[in-house]
Structures are given as structure tokens and as C-alpha cells.
Amino acid sequence: MSALAKNYSRRKISFKKGKGSFLYSTKKKKYLDFVQGIAVNSLGHSNPKLIKAINIQAKKVWHVSNAFIIPEGENLAKKLTKKTFADYVIFQNSGTEAVEAAIKVARKYFYTIGKPYKNRIITIKNSFHGRTMAAIFASGSKKMTEGFGPKITGFDHFKFGDHKTLKKLITKKTAAIMIEDCLGEGGCKLIPDWCLRELRKICNKKKILLIIDSVQSGAGRSGKFFAFEYAKIKPDIAVIAKGLGSGFPIGAVLLNKKTASCMTPGSHGSTFGGNPLAMEVANAVLDEIFKKGFLRSVERSSKYFRNALNKIKEEYPEIIKEIRGIGLLIGLQLYNNQAKFIKNLEDNKLLTIRAAENVVRILPPLNVKKSEIDLAIKIIRKVCKEYK
Ligand SMILES: Cc1ncc(COP(=O)(O)O)c(C=O)c1O
Fold it and tell me: Residue 355 contacts by C-beta under 8 Å, 6 or more apart in sequence?
């Protein structure tokens, strides 16, 4: 009997070790892992460069308080600001914590400029921003918020794509629009570039902030560091986590100069956020992701994978409805419930994970090999062929 609370319905499978794109189960079976901790292990399992980085830092210093200067964090923040729209960074330990911090910054910004009434945030109904109290109510999802009242107020919701409602929701109390550029849990639903550009224009016109939650799509998974870079826009605040630590817990809020100006000493903090161990792992991750040609190779792998998946879709149009997502955040939308399909893939030694709207989410490591994509394609085709 497990002593763990039952807030997960876990698959009956566990692992002894991992290497690159593969996981080895306690029952001595080898799986192609295209879940990778749900878009977390960006450089695959047991990456030698990350093992080296964590070991070197572990022998120096694991943790010091943010009451002191942390050079490893200074270095990581410099890397992030050099390569992105951001001028400043706040480090956290997870995606939802970073989302929470982003909400705080947006509200504090308007408070600081003398407009404390501007504190409401508009989000997409049934989007996903994590599991803290503010994040669940930000999502507007009945399933996630049920039983967790009283409601955290301050969020207004519009349906994905319903721009009319979105425009109506903007009032003088609105501080920001917060969206995922690709709704990962929501079914790998990508916000089109034209739409992101429109959102940026609306935010400029109404003098409100644009917050982009890139926790799942960020840190290179799209083929650019941020998926919204394809639309050539800059948010005021962006949030990353997951892939930034490639398995080491970390989150980050990236801020432009304007929004960062409100963050004065004492306004926000975290015991663990930004500690040297996390910072050095993420430094090693970014050294890989920002290496010349790395992101281009993510784009290439994505194109190769998607072409092959589209062929399978043509062969099995009664099973596969749509290939979704961006980069190596891939969604295979089925006509029917995806649970059986995912189980069949697992029985054939390919691990994938569900998302909303009957989607099978496929999340290889960013350094996935062509031969591994070929293996996944072979398994997916076989499962389609045998699917009843
Ligand atoms: C878009 C998005 N935001 C926030 C989160 C929450 O991140 P975490 O689970 O690290 O708290 C997730 C996690 O899946 C996510 O996909």
C-alpha cells in the first residue's frame, strides 16, 4: 500500500534509470521516453554535461540565501537577458510559482505608478498556469478549482479565439492579459502569430501588460527560445520553468525594464529560488540550447517528425484528426478518447502523455536523434494499424 496521497492516478510502471531518450523500467524493459517528465528533460536523461555541472557545483556550494550575491544566478540572468526581450529576471523553483510571481509583478507595477485599481488579469478559460491558488483560479477551470474556495478573485476569462469577448472584458481595472503561447495541457493548441501580434497591439493601445506563460513551450522547445518569437513580438513579462533545468526544479520570470521597476527590496522572495545548484544546472542547459545550430536542429527534428506524422494522418484519417503544437511540443489529436491509444503506444514501448481535446502529447528531448523519431513513427504507425 502506497503512503502517498492519491492526488495522481499513476501508471503501473516505474523506472530504474534513464539515458538520453530512453527509460529502463524496474521490470527490465526499455522505453522510448517521449514524455521526458512532461517537457522537462530538455537534454534527455543522464546528460553527461549536466551530470558534470551538478557534480562540480555540489562540491562547491549548494545553497546560500538570497541575502547574498549569488554569482551563478547573476551569470544565468545575464545569459537570459542577453538572448531574450528581458532586462531582468526573478528565479523561482517551479512554473506555477513563477506564474504567481508574474501576477504579483503585474499588480505591483500598476500600484507603483499610482493605479492600484488596475489589478485584474484576463486569461483564457481552461488554460493551465499551474496549481497554486492564484494559478488555478487564473485558469478558470471548474475541475481544478472545485473544492478549493473561497475563490481568488481578480481574473476574467475568455474562450480561446473569442476576441470579441476579450475586448469587452478590458476595463479600466484591467492590468494584464496572461496567455500561454501554446496551450500545452489544453491540447497543444497554438495561438497563431497574427493573433499574438493582435494581442500585443491591444495591450499597447489599452496600456496594459502582456504576460506570456511559456512554462511548457519555452526554453527552446518550439525551435526558438520562446515560441512567441515566431510572431516577432515582445511581452512585458514571460514565464519559463520545465526545460530550463532539464530535470532540476527551477522557474524564472523574465521582465522588461518597465515592469521590473516596481520590484524593490522585500517585494518578493524565495528561500530556494535562485540557489547556486539550480543556477549551475540551468547555466549548463542554456550553454547547450544557445550553442550555434542547436535551436535550428530542434526545428529540423520537428519538421521531420511532423511530416512523418502527417503521412500517418493521411493513412489513418479516421483515427487522427489533427497534428498540433509547435516545435517538439507535438499534439496528435484523435477523434476518440486517447487513453487506449496511449496505452497501446506504451505496450509497444513508446511513452507519451495525454492533453485535453483527445490529444496524445509527444515530447521528445530537444536533442532527439533522427533514428529515435523513426522508431516512434514506426510504433505510432503500428498502433494505428492495429487500432480498433
Ligand atoms: C503553461 C504552464 N504553466 C504553468 C505550469 C505549472 O508548472 P509547474 O508544474 O512547474 O508548477 C505548467 C505545467 O505543466 C504549464 O504547462
Answer: 184, 185, 186, 187, 188, 331, 361
Is any ligand 1 atom within 6 A of the Cβ of residue 216? yes
Q: Is 286 in the pocket of ligand 1 (CB under 6 A)?
A: no
Ligand 1 near 213 CB (within 6 A)? yes
- Nearest alpha carbon, ligand 1 atom 16: 216
Instruction: Note the pLDDT tens digit of each residue in 340-384.
Output: 999 999 999 999 999 999 999 999 999 999 999 999 999 999 999
Cα of 59 vs centre of ligand 1, distance in Å, is 31
114-123 confidence digits (pLDDT tens) = 999 999 999 9
d(CA 359, CA 329): 12
Distance 141 CA to ligand 1 centre (A): 14
User: Which amino acid type is present at position 91?
Assistant: F
Task: Compute, in angstroms, the gap from residue 129 CA to the centroid of ligand 1.
Answer: 5
**What confidence tens digit (pLDDT) does each residue in 243-300 have?**
999 999 999 999 999 999 999 999 999 999 999 999 999 999 999 999 999 999 999 9
Query: How far does residue 268's CA lie from ligand 1's centre (Å)?
Result: 20
Residue 307 phi, psi (nearest 5): -60, -45
252 C-alpha to center of ligand 1: Å? 12
Q: Which protein residue's CA is at the shortest distance from atom 8 of ligand 1?
A: 95
In angstroms, what CA-CA distances link 306 with 172, 252, 288, 301, 339? 43, 30, 24, 8, 21
The ligand 1 atom at the shortest distance from the C-alpha of residue 180 is 1
Residue 370: CA count within 13 A, CB half-sphere: 5
Q: What domains lie within the chain, and their CATH numbers?
A: 15-46+295-386 (3.90.1150.10), 49-289 (3.40.640.10)
